[in-house]
Design goal:
Two copies of one chain form a homodimer.
Chain A: H1 8-26, E1 32-34, H2 41-45, H3 77-87, E2 94-96, H4 101-115, E3 130-135, H5 139-147, E4 151-158, E5 161-162, H6 164-173, E6 177-182, H7 196-203, E7 213-217, H8 235-241, E8 248-253, E9 265-268, H9 271-284, H10 290-300, H11 303-331, E10 339-341, E11 350-354, H12 359-368, E12 371-373, E13 390-393, H13 400-424
Parallel strand pairs in A: 1-12, 3-4, 3-6, 6-7, 7-8
Antiparallel strand pairs in A: 2-9, 4-5, 8-9, 10-11, 11-13
Helix pairs in contact in A: 1-13, 7-8, 11-13, 12-13
Chain lengths: ~425, ~425
């Protein structure tokens, strides 16, 4: 039943049959939200022990300081040691922050606007600021750019990372290009892991702007869904080898390890970058929530234990991801080349490409029948997918049963939109 | 033994005797830090129960949402209700934030620089930005201004608040004046409470700049040290009466109620201000730590209970404050007009004025003998006390015994510096 092989009348029949299926689904009155990469309640339950680890009344850092009180701007020492390997830096190359890595990214950019980076002109004094945006990508990265009036340039993604030829050429020529967004491991939404060569080329990037920074959002660094996970290289290590260590800010968090609302975020960078960031930070706050940092360190003990803990996540997540990709394989693959999708080895999303011009329609059809997806276009700067084809599927929150129901509907919507698309040219 | 009545030889003798006392003190090798308004360990102990209130596994907000997960950008509804009366606003006029009100203040100013306030020109596009600074005041407020290159204008403080005549005149004339720092209740460091008239005049302020804001840092709003505490008026209520409700941002926190490192901060403002702040906030983060918000609400139950809880603080703090002021009274008052000091009814500090030109010397003498005070000048913009006379005494952290020891030294240092000052003109 390859839709491309169908005659007009066969297609019409297929369309009508699918529309009937859609309408009976609609009458079920589903109400499901698959719009965001949220952990499920069961996954959050895995970290409940963390809330009790301070019950013994020991709230002191290993340096003897009281975590309940002011102080330790850049984090408690054991938290620095604990989180440094997560983002591939040394313990003096990290600041342990509050509950939101997005907020740390926002702050580094806002501070670049008001104060510049390492003595360069504040971005607010520049005529134009541009960022490179590998696409599809994370909508909240793009929203930050839009908020600051940063012009975004789409960069195509390949199976080993963004198009490095294009990136190297652009940053070498244009001083107004000040940054690039990267989710190097299990990229959002495609689940792509940057190859060693990609990381090395990023680390060695020669940029016209001295204040260009790679915003290396390593959100899914320990979020594996497979037996032999791919580890990406430490970009800071690679950058040091070529004397280019100021090129990158590295971000990470436990928002998708412990609690999305009450995790710990970190930023890693060269000593020179960290020193400058700490100066600004010290004006903006006295300290972050160190009790929550202590909770994390006490709950896991070691970084290796946290990695081990993530296997319990995998037990909950893998069946969900499999439900999505198995159903797509079973029910859409036979329809011919009307869609393609990723089978990620980690991360939080399945990236789905419909036929050009169908994504918005599919999302609307799903929404009208009670399943909310990430808005079509959201994975592109300005919310504009030039081909109107990419949809981000977030399988982490619903139960596998709900997910199967939602995917059944999703597949019907894809079929319906595809048939109508094909009918346009018949 | 009024120093002003002494002959030169009497003064010399006094100086030498006092210097001997100082030297024997120095040999004790004290090591005390009275530089910041930090709570004592015993005070932090009063809130230890808060760390266990989620042990029952109920982590849901009253609206049914899971506080462990993403969402509820502006705080959980019960936290809004709980904190609104603390800063004198309605529950739809508040955003419940993270652990640092200083950070919220910083962010509102940084966002005014990058994006402007309610459609006005971003401050980074203005030639000059000025703030009014009632002095003495809080050094971290002034540090934010200095960081952003905001020109600070000193405003004298009176017993009922800042000099309103001067403020009204300046803001009416100068469009580049965009803000004023206020600690309206138990001001830092003098412990002054703004009178009803002062609050009303602030609320009715007519400013040339449309984007002028009062930064109303109500840090000590429930931090009473007396039986019949003075309550200041709600500035937002007063501003509404004169259709001027956009004039103020109100800040508060539990940093000095529960844990300094792990409290909850809030910002209150008019609906129009709140809406605009939330738009910017939603770009910069997904949500704050709602489990910690829930801890606070569950631990106290009601705002009234939190006010009641502060009486336990008073039991710990009042003896400390009394130790300071009693010793000053007993040992310095007989020396004549070489110093004056406040007897605060709340807040965190005793403000001490030495003879002109003596503050730096006194702080240095104390430091050399092992007692660290807030740097002289810190209570003024740019760290410059024009009279070099104000010293902020922070009695909250040390034990009463330590405090008495430290004050003994402090008093010796004041005597020594005063005698030397008087000898200069003999």
């Amino acid at each position: 039943m390859d839709l491309f092989q169908m005659s007009k009348s066969e297609l019409l029949e297929f369309r009508n049959k699918t529309e009937n299926e859609y309408n009976s689904f609609k009458s079920l009155g589903l109400k499901l939200d698959m719009s965001r990469g949220k952990p499920s309640p069961e996954q959050l339950d895995l970290s409940m022990g963390m809330l009790n680890v301070l019950n013994d009344g020991n709230y002191k850092s290993e340096n003897g300081l009281d975590c309940r009180n002011y102080g330790m701007l850049d984090g408690i020492p054991e938290a620095k040691k604990f989180f440094a390997p997560m983002i591939g830096v040394n313990e003096n190359e990290i600041i342990v922050c509050g509950n939101s890595s997005l907020n740390v990214m926002f702050w580094t950019i806002q501070t670049a606007f008001t104060h510049g980076i390492l003595g360069e002109k504040p971005w607010c004094k520049c005529d134009k600021i541009k960022f490179l945006c590998p696409t599809p990508g994370y909508d909240r990265h793009f929203a930050i750019c839009e908020f600051f009036g940063i012009e975004m340039i789409n960069i195509p993604m390949h199976s080993d990372g963004p198009d490095m030829d294009m990136i190297e050429k652009l940053v070498a020529e244009d001083e107004s290009i000040k940054g690039i967004w990267c989710v190097p491991q299990y990229s959002n939404p495609q689940g792509i892991c940057y190859s060693d060569e990609t990381v090395k080329r990023f680390a060695a990037l020669k940029t016209k702007a001295k204040d260009f920074r790679i915003f290396w959002d390593n959100a899914y660094c320990i979020h594996h869904l497979c037996d032999e996970p791919k580890y990406i290289l430490s970009i800071l290590d690679e950058a040091k080898k070529v004397n280019n260590e100021n090129i990158v800010y590295i971000f990470g968090s436990t928002s998708k390890v412990t609690f999305s609302g009450a995790g710990v975020a970190v930023i890693g960078a060269s000593l020179e970058n960290i020193k400058s960031l700490k100066t600004a930070l010290g004006i903006s706050t006295i300290s972050f929530d160190k009790l929550n940092q202590l909770r994390h360190v006490r709950f896991f003990g070691t970084f290796d234990n946290m990695v081990e803990h993530m296997k319990k996540h995998r037990e909950l997540l893998a069946p969900r991801f499999n439900a999505v990709t198995d159903m797509l394989e079973e029910k859409l693959a036979p329809c011919g080349k009307i869609a393609e999708w990723t089978k990620p080895q980690g991360g939080y999303f399945v990236s789905f490409n419909a036929m050009n011009g169908c994504a918005k329609k599919i999302v609307k059809l799903c929404s009208d029948a009670g399943v909310k997806l990430t808005g079509a276009g959201a994975t592109f700067p300005y919310g504009k997918d030039p081909d109107d084809k990419n949809i981000r599927i977030a399988p982490t929150y619903p139960s596998t049963e709900e997910l199967k129901k939602a995917m059944e509907l999703f597949i019907i919507c894809v079929k319906l939109a595809s048939a109508e698309k094909l009918l346009e040219t018949k």
